[in-house]
From TrEMBL, chain B:
The lineage of its organism: Bacteria, Bacillati, Bacillota, Bacilli, Bacillales. Residues 1-177 form the FAD-binding PCMH-type domain. Gene3D superfamilies: 3.30.465.10, CO dehydrogenase flavoprotein, C-terminal domain, Uridine Diphospho-n-acetylenolpyruvylglucosamine Reductase, domain 2. Pfam families: CO_deh_flav_C, FAD_binding_5. Keywords: Flavoprotein, Oxidoreductase. This is CO/xanthine dehydrogenase FAD-binding subunit. SUPFAM superfamilies: CO dehydrogenase flavoprotein C-terminal domain-like, FAD-binding/transporter-associated domain-like. PANTHER family: XANTHINE DEHYDROGENASE FAD-BINDING SUBUNIT XDHB-RELATED, XANTHINE DEHYDROGENASE SUBUNIT C-RELATED. It comes from the Bacteria.
Length: 778, 292
């Protein structure tokens, strides 16, 4: 554990908390590390049917006919299904259900599903796919989001290619630019990042003997999946059981429906046998959702003293063939496009556009990654131009709690930006940056150190339901079963839930059993997304706990024959205040309650606080809560080749009070590495609607050798509404590192890379372009 | 042919292997470490009637010095090479390249014979075999023949090896006392990456400061097969290899290569990188020579 985290620890000890704020080990740690943890796609059964999906052959084509006769004749095929076999509505999508479960008339990307095969073996299912004859009329694919917006472009959907348009305007943008001494304008392009989770999309399902449906698969909102399955299958959602935890990684990539409806369809056609679908990595690259590639044009005005006075942003997001969460991603991007600052005049708009380039959707950061680069790069340019300190400019323009943000709303929740910037200024890497920069490992290498700051909304924003619910049940052995539907996707939220419950109930951590992601055992508690699960689940548990304490105290008072007001909660027991000899254990209480046929279960419900009024046409802004973050990074560039290493990262999050320092470090380090991947390596290349990137061979994610030294220094602004003062952390940890690396490359070489990823080739060519033309070649 | 229908046999001797190779009515392929074979089988590219599993043929896994050079068995793994004291001393360029193949897990499984037979233009050990004047021994039931490395490759994935032949020995020239070598690789990341450009350099040094008596330079991933850079090689002996001379030699490299553009890099960048890697490699070699 780092020194800074230890200091945090010391602070927590003072508060007399037993579990919260302590670096407790993950409750699911050992089975994950040893590999004993069974994921949903690890299950196989002797009588299992293997499902495979026939994907579209072309990125854009009309389907003239589908002939399944030959596939059905295959001796090992159990069933072949097409759009005709869908009992309910042939579509899904979290916001707009525009994606067909199985395509009927048209295919819009090569990830589109055209037919399903269930067979005795995986190999038989694969060969049966080749026997399905689809007659296509091939159309010219729409592959550029900007061209797709133009009148006359082929329409992918009946309402045209612009899925959504959002805007936020505040102040007077023209006046702002008139006041500006400097104006910077640049266009930034972002990559189609892949979630690259270790467990690809998949799962299994079956019809139970009573005719109800069970689906077990990694997913990010089982209770909503139930509704989407029910709509397509024309089923009663109450007769659907989804068990969706743990996930072998989610990052937003399992927020939307992946295989659930396909499993449900197959399960209804194979006489009660279990059926499994598990996407190969190649299929996951092709059909799984990705991060939206953005083109963002940013124009920023500032005065000589470093005040930002105007910011104009136009963002175009390529959502591919279907909406999924594209509209929400674009809206969140626009909400965050002027940074955590108080710029008086802003004019920001975003378009979410359909193309035939795969499908984009939710991904950690949710649009903010794509837009944070503009404002942060422009602040660095301003620093360079004026000679002002880049940290001072940020501090000068950052809003504090109670200030009016660029959006024009008063920020009422906690704001840690300035504290994170102060910690950044004081950190060893920033203070000694000139020394570090001089220590290059070979003469042609150059080092750069840079800083960037950003923020990220916590929770869903206006217009979307956002609530949490927890159940708490006293068990016969005196332990508590805590149920929160929000899935474990790798973040360690279950450990935080156990900590909050143990703290509230004054019991030991191993007396808490956490149940997640099972729709029959937990109440709907919303998604595992939007950096919301610690805050929401934690608050729901903290709301349920008093109900449990009340139940325990009432029963204890009865047993001990004292007024309830004299009962006190002690470690793992209840006692009469001031008399340690008179007590009852939780186990005894459970026995009494069961004897009396009383319920041992309580619930807690919690609605996330929201702003009163939505900014007109903003698609959900502003959020009530934001997490804030500053990154300091050092890079070393090989000027001969453009190869770039991130050598050091200082991560300074403001996530409110830290509930588990070890968990925070894990998120911070994972986020930093994912941010490095986004900035330097990762992109799914699609040309003419066809994937050039097909597998991990050509999709470059950082390995341990690309992982730098990462130091995490939390700034703990107390968020009064949060469980023990906490906010959220999961997304912001990968955001400011992106512009920080870009700025560090500039600091090292003088080259600006506005098209990510900054591959060695792009950095090399950008460096070449900065050289003055000369008659003498080198 | 389906994967589940492929037969796999595990012969115990080279003769047995050759016998199976000679069977005309069935297609067959070798599988050793499987680092290429399994991937291509899953892609559907390699689906023979029979896999001839040779992983356990220990008689083809050796590193030994003989009168006519160092003999390396084709089933020698990259890890074997990395750890060989003999090769570290007398073929440092090869040990350096073997360290750059994929990552440790691949080096543990992959074999040098497999790297040669797969004949990828980006194969990391192959340029080093050019600068070490490797000779490939091909054996069939009827005969044994020796093919110099520069005649072995025909194009990407294609060699002069016939269906009934197998690689049974790789003979390389041991470096002498005053010879030093280096392998430089440019990949999209440090581990688990396929070369965008690579280069193997072996130099024979003289008595005077940075005096080069001759050397060999071979580029990978810049043409359908390995490119020996004869022009740069000739320039090695003109002047002592101080920084300016190094820059001059490297500056000539881009004309020697004929790369293509693909998903990993453009041809233009690859050309520039041939020069950059040569410059970096020569600089590092000379630094090492000075510090010896």
């Amino acid at each position: 554990m780092s020194k800074q985290v230890e200091e945090t620890q010391a602070y927590k000890d003072k508060q007399n908390l037993q579990w919260v704020g302590k670096p407790v080990k993950r409750i699911d740690g050992s089975e994950k590390v040893t590999g004993e943890q069974k994921y949903k796609t690890d299950y196989n059964y002797p009588n299992m049917v293997w499902g495979k999906v026939l994907r579209a052959k072309y990125p854009f084509a009309k389907i003239k006919s589908i002939d399944t006769t030959k596939a059905e004749a295959h001796p090992d095929v159990v069933c072949v299904l097409t759009h005709k076999d869908i009992p309910g509505f042939n579509g899904f999508g979290i916001v707009t259900p525009d994606q067909p479960v199985l395509c009927e008339n048209v295919v819009r990307c090569t990830g589109d599903a055209v037919a399903l095969v269930g067979a005795e073996t995986l190999e038989a299912a694969e060969s049966a796919l080749e026997l399905i004859e689809v007659d296509y009329e091939v159309l010219d694919p729409v592959t550029d989001a900007e061209k797709a917006m133009v009148q006359g472009a082929p329409k992918l959907h009946p309402d045209g290619n612009i899925h959504s348009h959002v805007s936020i305007r505040n102040g007077d943008i023209d006046k702002g630019f008139e006041e500006a001494d400097y104006i910077f304008e640049n266009t930034f392009y972002s990559p189609r990042q892949m979630h690259a989770f270790i467990e690809t999309e998949g799962g299994w399902g079956m019809l139970k003997p009573d005719g109800s449906l069970m689906i077990q698969c990694p997913a990010q909102y089982g209770h909503r999946d139930k509704l989407q399955i029910a709509r397509a299958l024309a089923l009663n959602p109450e007769r659907i059981h989804v068990y969706s935890s743990p996930n072998g990684g989610g990052f937003g990539g399992k927020d939307e429906i992946t295989v659930q409806i396909h499993l449900a369809l197959l399960a209804h056609n194979i006489s009660g046998r279990p059926v499994k679908i598990h996407l190969s990595r190649e299929e996951s690259v092709l059909a799984g959702i990705k991060r939206h590639p953005f083109k963002v044009t940013v124009k920023t005005g500032a005065t000589k003293d470093g005040s930002l006075v105007a910011n104009k942003v136009c963002a175009i997001a390529d959502t591919g063939a279907y909406a999924s969460l594209g509209g929400a991603v674009t809206a969140l991007a626009i909400e965050h496009a002027s940074g955590p600052y108080k710029i008086p005049n802003v004019d920001m708009e975003g378009f979410c556009v359909y193309t035939n380039n795969g499908i984009a959707g939710a991904f950690r950061g949710f649009g903010v990654n794509q837009v944070c680069t503009g404002i942060e790069t422009h602040i660095d340019m301003l620093a360079e131009k004026t000679g002002l300190d880049p940290v001072e400019i940020r501090k000068k323009n950052a809003y504090r709690q109670g200030d009016v943000s660029s959006l024009g709303h008063v920020v009422k929740s906690s704001v840690g930006t300035i504290e994170t910037l102060e910690k950044a200024e004081q950190c060893d890497l920033w203070k000694n940056r000139d020394l570090y920069k001089s220590q290059v490992s070979e003469p042609w290498k150059k080092r750069g150190v840079a800083i960037a700051t950003s923020f990220h909304g916590v929770g869903m924003g206006l217009g979307s339901p956002d609530y949490g619910a927890a159940t708490m049940e006293l068990l016969e052995d005196g332990r508590f079963k805590v149920g929160v539907a929000i899935e474990e996707i790798g973040t360690g939220n279950g450990t935080v839930y156990a900590q909050v419950a143990a703290e509230c109930l004054k019991c030991s951590l191993d007396h808490i059993i956490v149940v997640q992601g099972d729709t029959t055992k937990t109440l709907d508690s919303g998604t595992i997304s939007a950096s919301r699960s610690t805050y929401t689940g934690g608050r729901a548990i903290a709301t349920a706990a008093p109900n449990m304490i009340n139940l325990l105290s009432e029963t204890a008072a009865e047993i001990l024959d004292v007024p309830k007001s004299e009962i006190e909660l002690a470690n793992n027991k209840l006692m009469v205040a001031g008399d340690e000899s008179q007590f009852v254990t939780y186990k005894q209480i459970c026995e009494i309650l069961l004897d009396k046929r009383k319920s041992t279960r309580v619930e807690g419900h919690f609605y996330l606080p929201k702003e009163k009024e939505e900014l007109r046409n903003s698609g959900g802004a502003p959020h009530h809560l934001y997490g804030y973050m500053t990154h300091v990074v050092m890079v070393e560039v090989d000027t001969l080749t453009g190869q770039t290493d991130v050598l050091k990262v200082v991560a300074i999050p403001d996530a409110g009070k830290v509930l588990n320092p070890q968990g925070l470090e894990g998120q911070s380090e994972g986020g930093a590495v994912m941010g490095i991947g986004y900035t330097l390596y990762e992109d799914v290349l699609i040309e003419d609607g066809m994937h050039k990137t097909k597998n991990f061979t050509d999709y470059i994610i950082p390995t341990i050798r690309e992982t730098p030294e990462i130091v995490t220094i939390p700034v703990e602004s107390n968020e009064e509404t949060g469980p023990f003062g906490a906010k959220g952390i999961a997304e912001v940890v990968m955001i400011p590192i992106i512009p920080a690396i870009m700025a560090a490359i500039h600091d090292a070489t003088g080259a600006r890379i506005n098209r990510l990823p900054a591959t060695p080739e792009r950095i090399y060519h950008a460096m070449q372009a900065t050289k003055k033309p000369s008659l003498i070649s080198r | 042919m389906k994967v589940s229908e492929i037969e796999m046999i595990s012969p115990q001797t080279v003769e047995e292997c050759l016998y199976h190779l000679g069977e005309k009515d069935k297609t067959s392929r070798f599988i050793a470490g499987g680092t290429d074979a399994v991937v291509r089988m899953k892609d559907g590219a390699w689906l023979p009637d029979t896999w001839i599993n040779i992983k356990q043929l220990d008689s083809l896994r050796y590193i030994k010095e003989e009168e006519n050079g160092i003999h390396i068995g084709p089933l020698t793994t990259h890890t074997d090479i990395v750890h060989s004291g003999l090769l570290q001393k007398k073929a440092d360029v090869l040990t350096a390249a073997s360290k750059e193949v994929g990552a440790v897990q691949l080096q543990n499984m992959g074999t040098i014979g497999g790297n040669i037979a797969t004949a990828s233009p980006a194969g990391d050990t192959i340029p080093t075999l050019f600068v070490l004047d490797a000779q490939i021994e091909l054996t069939s039931l009827m005969e044994k023949r020796i093919v110099p490395i520069n005649e072995f490759f025909v194009g990407p994935g294609r060699t002069v090896q016939a269906q009934e032949e197998m690689i049974t020995n790789i003979i390389i020239r041991p470096q002498t006392e005053n010879e030093i070598g280096i392998f430089e690789k440019l990949g999209p990341r440090k581990a688990q990456s396929i070369s965008i450009v690579n280069v193997a350099i072996s130099l024979k040094m003289g008595e005077k400061s940075r005096e080069c008596l001759g050397g060999k330079i071979a580029f990978g991933s810049v043409a359908p097969t390995i490119v020996r850079s004869e022009k740069c090689e000739r320039m090695l002996t003109i002047n002592p290899l101080h920084d300016e001379a190094i820059q001059d030699i490297a500056g000539a490299a881009w004309k020697e290569v004929m790369p293509i553009s693909d998903v990993r890099a453009s041809a233009k960048y690859r050309r520039s990188m041939a020069s950059a890697l040569l410059e970096r490699g020569l600089y590092r070699l000379m630094k090492r020579w000075d510090e010896r």
